[in-house]
Amino acid sequence: xxxxxxxxxxxxxxxxxKEEIRFVxxxxxxxxxxxxxxxxxxxxxxxxDMSTNERAELTMAMVESGDQIDLxxxxxxxxxxxxxxxxxxKTTIALAPLVAAVGVPVAKMSGRGLGHTGGTIDKLxxxxxxxxxxxxxxxxxxxxNNKLAVVGQTGNLTPADKKLYAxxxxxATVNSIPLIAxxxxxxxxxxxxxxxxxxxxxxxxAFMKELDQSKELAExxxxxxxxxxxDTMAIISDMNQPLGRTIGNSLEVREAIDMLRGEGPxxxxxxxxxxxxQMVYLAKKAPSIEKARTMLVDVIANGRALETLKVFIESxxxxxxxxxxxxxxxxxxxxxxxxxKESGSVSSIVADKMGTAAMLLGAGRATKxxxxxxxxxxxxxxxxxxxxxxxxxxxxxxANQQDVQHVVEMISSAYSISxxxxxxxxxxxxxIY
Length: 433
Ligand code: URA
Hints:
The chain has a four-stranded mixed beta sheet, sandwiched between helices. The protein is 44% helix and 15% strand. The mean pLDDT is 96. The longest helix has 17 residues, at 211-227. Helix 1 runs parallel beside helix 3 (35-48), helix 4 (52-63) crosses helix 9 (177-190) and helix 9 crosses helix 10 (211-227). The chain is an alpha/beta fold and 433 residues long. The radius of gyration is 22 Å and the shape is globular. Uracil binds at residues 165, 174, 179-180, 183-184.
């Protein structure tokens, strides 16, 4: 087989076979096929798309390019959740103990990553003592006993995706549905999930800004999951404003705890109940989505969800007393209010700008080696649709530096206030099966 022939075949819109896709992925991973040929190949896919079969074959070839996590020692159906990412997305921290509390085994492998705040692991490390450095035996034991454990990413998962994603980043080929869908699904499948619930974000703060693009991506991922034998569904949720009321590691942990206590913002609770009921149903712990939702509402009301969080924290060496005393989480030295300059209703909060503001405070990493400040961040006192009076606090900045004028300006420019009343945005747009 010659790479140039496969580029030509895809360029001309023909379907590639399993063997041809393997040839490209294996050859590229080993270094036998150069970047320039794979760049041309990715661009051909960008313009010519891939069939459902090709997408599934590309996903599997990337899964098999590296290690795969074996979760078979864990009892029950392991359901993983993946979000395409957004600002203030602390869902995993609340959702994992929530579904574990009704008996769904959650064996989560998480990362740190770059972004407006740290990843799930960074957020969890805001809890004093909490450790994700656990070995496979202990991980399995914890999930079997407590239904929940989170471990840092280990092993060499999907090296083909790592290499291809880096190449796409510099060849204008990131924004291709077949390439995004196979990239995300390869990582989920290599992590050992039996079933997958996807949270595809849509809106100004999301990877996919338009609803029809988000749906197309969700449909592509669900089709790949199903054709590879994983029960998969997706919801499309809003990211036109940050999720919940906090952005920043320690602040987000606190908000997740509030949610499990039955408090906290309505959008976070609703998103967790929507995703959670799908997870419980796919794990076959409930006969219907409606029943699954009732079970989740019950464990919030009777304290089982909060208790599961405490056991989870303790079993990974964290200080579980933060659940009842969240003031023990890292706190910033200064709190600065950003006030409304006019009265009306909040008509938009540009999520990206709010994320950048949190990052400027030190809540996120700009490069792999940056350190993050777990204490700093932003609390949104007003969200879209809320009425405001001149001088009301829109946002409280939690900072470890006194001069945050640049952050205040960024936040002020993210908020728009309208004289007319504004409807609250839709949170869940669609469900894709
Ligand atoms: N996230 C991924 O993991 N892969 C993509 O291709 C795009 C977003």
